[in-house]
């Protein structure tokens, strides 16, 4: 079983979750341990195979520091394969942290050809970025705020 770290900065506990989320998260934990993940890691099945992911609390300020923190636990900063993974992460985080606070590092980076480029025919909102973890594929996991990305940087 390979280990994949999803994100840094926020950790959720079941004690603070609403009842409906506790039921969902408990069912996920039972599935996780049956698939070889430790109890506090989430099992995800991707086209590239089964992975274990976990949200770690941290105060890292850059993508590079987040990746280093992942490597310290023999993992890598993860992408989001699809909306289901994004929903799980969102509900896990919002169970403890208000929507207007905190941040989350994922393995999404602007492609080299689109660095410094505005939105163009070759640098669209779906082609300007790529997953860095080697296991996330496609664009179903891209989650942007309205009007983003605008390719300003």
TrEMBL record:
InterPro entries according to UniProt: C-type_lectin-like, C-type_lectin-like/link_sf, CTDL_fold
Gene3D superfamilies noted in UniProt: Mannose-Binding Protein A, subunit A (3.10.100.10)
Superkingdom to which the source organism belongs: Eukaryota
Coiled coil: none
Keywords: Signal
The C-type lectin domain, residue ranges: 48-153
Signal sequence region: 1-15
Record CDD domains: CLECT (cd00037)
PANTHER family: C-TYPE LECTIN DOMAIN-CONTAINING PROTEIN, C-TYPE LECTIN DOMAIN-CONTAINING PROTEIN-RELATED-RELATED
Protein's name according to its UniProt entry: C-type lectin domain-containing protein
Species this chain originates from: Caenorhabditis briggsae
């Amino acid at each position: 079983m390979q280990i994949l770290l999803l994100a840094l900065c926020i950790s959720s506990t079941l004690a603070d979750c609403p009842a409906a989320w506790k039921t969902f998260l408990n069912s996920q934990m039972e599935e996780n341990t049956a698939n070889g993940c430790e109890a506090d890691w989430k099992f995800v099945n991707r086209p590239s195979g089964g992975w274990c992911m976990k949200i770690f609390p941290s105060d890292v300020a850059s993508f590079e520091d987040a990746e280093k923190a992942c490597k310290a636990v023999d993992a890598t900063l993860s992408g989001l394969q699809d909306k289901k993974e994004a929903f799980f992460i969102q509900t896990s985080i919002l169970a403890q942290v208000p929507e207007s606070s905190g941040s989350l590092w994922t393995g999404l980076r602007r492609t080299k050809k689109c660095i410094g480029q505005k939105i163009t025919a070759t640098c669209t909102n779906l082609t300007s970025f790529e997953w860095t973890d080697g296991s996330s594929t496609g664009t179903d996991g891209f989650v942007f705020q309205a009007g983003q990305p605008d390719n300003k940087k």
